[in-house]
């Protein structure tokens, strides 16, 4: 399965160093997810997910992995990004008035993972600086998934 995740620099460094990352967080709100959450790269693109994950995730690093590990299929309810009316004031009023639709996204979760069971295909840094909220999709600058010289 090809999946992706937005994460902090600290989490990425631990992954690169071969540590087994552990997370037993029971997420609160409109979700049944536990631990680390990933999205299916066949269902969403990171560029599209930026728009509905804004304010929820850390955008330091975006990773795309391939894994054969059995993940728990869960869900999360997110706000659909609004289509701009062209008037920023009107857009803001629509947000505050609650004119945002929700949708349910499939998530894939695990309470632990490492670079032994999640193969890094590519990653991108400084996602927030690359994000263009007014565009349908951003153009993320990707790096190949080589972690260090030993793997090259």
How would you describe the overall organization of this protein?
The structure is a single chain. The protein is built from 4 helices and 9 strands. It has 152 residues and is α+β, with helices and mostly antiparallel strands. The strands form 2 sheets. Strands 5-6-3-1-4-8-9 form a 7-stranded antiparallel sheet. The protein is globular, with a radius of gyration of 16 Å. The chain starts with a strand and ends in an 8-residue tail after the last strand.
Keywords:
single chain, 152 residues, alpha+beta, seven-stranded antiparallel beta sheet, two-stranded antiparallel sheet, 4 helices, 19% helix
User: What coarse outline follows from CA principal-axis ratios?
Assistant: globular
> Strand order, biggest sheet?
5-6-3-1-4-8-9
**Largest sheet descriptor:** 7 strands, antiparallel
Structural class: alpha+beta
Please work out how many helical segments DSSP would assign: 4
Secondary structure tally: strands = 9
Q: From N to C, what is the helix and strand string?
A: EHEEHEEHEEEHE
Percentage of helical residues? 10-25%
Low-confidence stretches: none
């Amino acid at each position: 399965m090809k999946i992706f995740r937005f994460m902090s620099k600290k989490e990425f460094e631990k992954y690169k160093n071969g540590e087994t990352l552990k997370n037993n967080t029971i997420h609160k709100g409109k979700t049944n997810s536990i631990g680390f959450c990933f999205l299916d790269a066949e269902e969403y693109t990171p560029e599209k997910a930026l728009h509905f994950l804004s304010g929820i995730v850390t955008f330091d690093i975006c990773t795309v992995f391939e894994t054969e590990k059995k993940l728990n299929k869960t869900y999360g309810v997110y706000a659909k990004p609004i289509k701009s009316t062209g008037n920023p004031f009107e857009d803001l009023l629509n947000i505050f008035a609650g004119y945002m639709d929700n949708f349910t996204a499939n998530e894939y979760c695990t309470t632990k993972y490492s670079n032994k069971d999640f193969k890094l295909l590519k990653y991108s840094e400084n996602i927030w600086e690359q994000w263009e909220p007014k565009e349908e999709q951003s153009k993320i600058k990707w790096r190949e998934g080589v972690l260090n010289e030993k793997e090259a």
